[in-house]
């Protein structure tokens, strides 16, 4: 029987997508726009210097690199502004956030506490759960997750409480 138990799928206790308003709020800050504009200015700079470089293959290569960077920058912007948020899953013994492949995972026993803060962006309300993690953990740990401000929050907080995580709510 233990041989077959290795092939069972670990179903999450709870699953949701982070609200897109959270990503848009971060993108609306001046620092994000400066970084994004630099990402778009590099291809323009490459296009301007292309005629003044060596005439063998360098101008075509600069134009190709500039076009490639321009497309990548546009795709990143479109993904952040219009795409869905990251997928968050609460499993039996860990929390997972799909920022990349494989998803970032943090075991509940590595989380000391969780603080809840409320935020909004253009009439979209959401909650940010920030985890205080134990020292000495490797990179790729889940530091915070974002939930819609509805019944999802209470259910997620109950799952975290059941796993022994101290929840710190804001003083209202």
Q: Mind explaining what this structure looks like?
A:
40% of the residues lie in helices and 27% in strands. The protein is α+β, with helices and mostly antiparallel strands. A four-stranded antiparallel sheet has the order 1-2-3-4, with helices on one face. A four-stranded mixed sheet has the order 7-6-5-8. It is elongated.
Give a quick set of tags describing it.
single chain; 172 residues; alpha+beta; PH-domain like; four-stranded antiparallel sheet
Brief summary:
With 172 residues, this protein is α+β, with helices and mostly antiparallel strands. It has 2 domains: 20-82; 85-168, Roll (PH-domain like), CATH 2.30.29.30. The protein has 5 helices and 8 strands, in the order H-E-H-H-H-E-E-E-E-E-E-H-E.
């Amino acid at each position: 029987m233990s041989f077959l138990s290795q092939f069972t799928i670990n179903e999450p206790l709870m699953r949701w997508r982070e609200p897109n308003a959270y990503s848009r709020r971060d993108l609306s800050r001046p620092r994000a726009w400066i970084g994004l504009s630099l990402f778009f200015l590099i291809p323009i700079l490459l296009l301007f210097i292309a005629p003044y470089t060596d005439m063998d293959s360098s101008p075509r290569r600069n134009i190709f690199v500039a076009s490639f960077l321009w497309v990548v920058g546009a795709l990143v912007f479109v993904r952040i502004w219009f795409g869905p948020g990251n997928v968050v899953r609460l499993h039996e013994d860990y929390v997972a956030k799909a920022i990349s492949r494989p998803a970032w995972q943090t075991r509940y026993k590595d989380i000391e506490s969780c603080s809840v803060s409320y935020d909004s962006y253009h009439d979209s309300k959401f909650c940010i759960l920030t985890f205080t993690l134990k020292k000495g953990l490797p990179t790729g740990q889940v530091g915070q997750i974002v939930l819609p401000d509805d019944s999802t929050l209470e259910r997620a907080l109950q799952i975290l409480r059941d796993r022994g995580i101290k929840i710190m709510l804001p003083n209202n």
